[in-house]
Amino acid sequence: MKISNIFSQFYENFSANELIEYVVTLAKFHRIQGSKDLENSAKYIYNILKHTQSFNVKTYEFSYKDSYGLHDPVVGWNLESCEVEILKPIHMTIASSIHSKNCAVAHSPPGSVEGEVIYVGSGVEIESLKSDELRNKIVLSHGNPYIVYKTLVKTGAIGFMFYKTNVDDNAIPYLSLFLTPSEADEYAAPAVSIPRKVANRILRFIERGDKVVVRIDVKANYSLNANIVTVEASLDDRDSNDEVHLFAHYCHPSYEINDNVSGSATLLELVLTIDRLVSKGFLKPSSKKKLVFVWFPEYYGSLPYLMNKVIDKATNIVFGINLDMIGEKQDITKSTLNLVLPPSFISNPLYEALLIKILINALSTNNPSFNGVANITKYRFDILPYEGGSDHDIYLQFSIPSVMLNQWPDIFYHTNLDDIHKFDPEMAKLVGVSIGVFSYIVLTENALHINPQLLVNEYRSFRHGYKTLKLCDMEYEASTTIYAEKYRYKGPKGVLSLRYIVRRMPQHRLKELLNIVEKEFNSFLLTRYIPLLLMNNALSLEEIRRGIWNEYCINVNTDTLRKLIHYLTELNLIEVISSENLPPPSHKE
C-alpha cells in the first residue's frame, strides 16, 4: 500500500474540530508542576481516553515529595491570585493573574509586601552591594530565578521581581523556582514575573534618581500531597515485550498553547483516530509490538514512569517519539518544525529513516515545483542532531532511541503570548497524522514492502552527509596529549539542572561554573550530552572530544572540557576508572 493511501485514511479520520476542543480545554488548567490543576488536566485526558474501544488506559501515580534520580522533591503549589503595582513615583498595575497567571513565579511563597526596588542585574555578581543593602527591599533581576532567589533571599530581601531580556517587550515570562518542601518552609519572600517593558521603565526611574516603590501580593498555598500523574493508553492489552512509545508532556501555565498543549492534544486526537480506524477494520493491533501513548509532567513524570516501566517490568521499548511544541503558525512564531534525532550511539536508523520519509511526504502535499518534477514542502522543516530540553532526554538515558518533533525557535516561548492565536491546527494535524502513518507501518510490518536495509543504508549516508554539509566548516583538531584516564557516569538517572547544582556546590565554585555555562553549548554538554555519553561508554578526555565532534562538528576547548568533567566529578556523578586522576583544572577564565 502506498504512503499516500495510508495518509488519506488517517487524515480523514483525524478531527481538527476535536483537536481544537482539546487544545482550548487543556489550556484552561494552570498546569504547574505540583498543582491541583495539573492533576485535574490528567483526569481530563484520562476521561476522554477511557471511552475508547481499542485501548487499555491506566494511570501511574508518584509523589512530588519524593526524589527520583537527579530530580529533587518539589513542593505542591496552587496559585489563587497575583498582583504587582508600582506605588511610587507613579501608580500603576504592572502584572496581574487576571490577565496572566505567569504573574507569580511558579512555587513562589505567598505574601504581600511593599518596598523599594533594588536592581541587581543577573544577580550573580553583587560584591558591590553592602551586606544590608537589600534588607526590606524588593529585588529586580533578569538572572536565573532560582539562583538569584536562593542567593539573595537570606540578605533580608522581602520580595523578588524577575524579567527576561530575550523576549517580547510586553510578554510576561513563565518562570519557576521548583522549591523543595524544606525550602518552602524556609523561604517567605514572594516572587513575581513582569514584562521587560515595565522593567526597563523601572530602571529609567532608578537611573534618574527616583525611588521606586512596588507592592507585591501573591496568594498561594503549599501542599505535601501533590501527585505526579502519568496517563498511558496502550493499543490493545495483549502481552508484548516490544513497545513503541508516542509521548508528550502536559504541564506548563494556563493559556500557553504550543508548549505543550499542542503536543498533548494532538496525541489525544491521534488515539481517537486510531480507535476509529481499528473499529473500521483498517488497522489491527500487532501481536509483536505494542503501541503506547503516554502523557506526563515534563521530566518529573517521565523519569519515575520509566524507572517503573523499564527497570521493574523489564519492558523493551524499541523507539520513542516526543511531541513538544508541534502546532505553530510559523509566519507568526518565526519557527521551524524540527526533527531532533537521537545521538548516533543510541539510534534506530530504520525507524528514523521511515519517520523522515513520512514527514517529508506529509509536509509536501499539493505543492508542485515549477515544472511539476516534485512537491515542495509548504512548511519550514529541518533535521537536527541531538538536542536536549524535553522528555526524550529521559528515554535516551534508558538507552531507548527517541526523537523529538519540535517547533523552534519560537519568539513567544515560555511567555503568556504563546496563545491560541499562534496555534495552527492544520500543522498539528499533519504532524499527528504523520505519526499515525508511522505507527501503522511499524505495527503492520513491511506494509510498504520497503527494503529495510536499503532504507537504512540511504539514511546513514544522508545523516552523515547532511551533518557534514550543514555543520562542518573545519577539520577535527586532535589533541597532542595522551589521556590514559577514562571516565564513566556513576550517578542516578535524570536531567542535571542548575537547581540541583546550586543545592550541592559552594557559592564560590558556583560562580566559576556559571561563567562557563553562560555559553549555551557548554551548558548542554554539562547537563545533557556528557552524562549521556558516559552512561553508555567509559571514555578518555580525547574520546569525549572526538564524540562531540562526530555529533556536532565542534572542536571543544580541552581545558573547558576538563573543567566540565571536573564539575561532574565534584558532584559525584562521574568517576575516573583508570590509573590516575586528572589534576584539578585551573579555574582562571
UniProtKB/TrEMBL annotation:
Q: Which SUPFAM superfamilies match?
A: PA domain, Zn-dependent exopeptidases
- Pfam family of the protein (one): Peptidase_M28
Q: Native species of this protein? A: Ignisphaera cupida
InterPro entries recorded: PA_dom_sf (IPR046450), Peptidase_M28 (IPR007484)
Q: What is the lineage of its organism?
A: Archaea, Thermoproteota, Thermoprotei, Desulfurococcales, Desulfurococcaceae
Give start and end of each Peptidase M28 domain: 233-429
State the protein's name: DUF4910 domain-containing protein
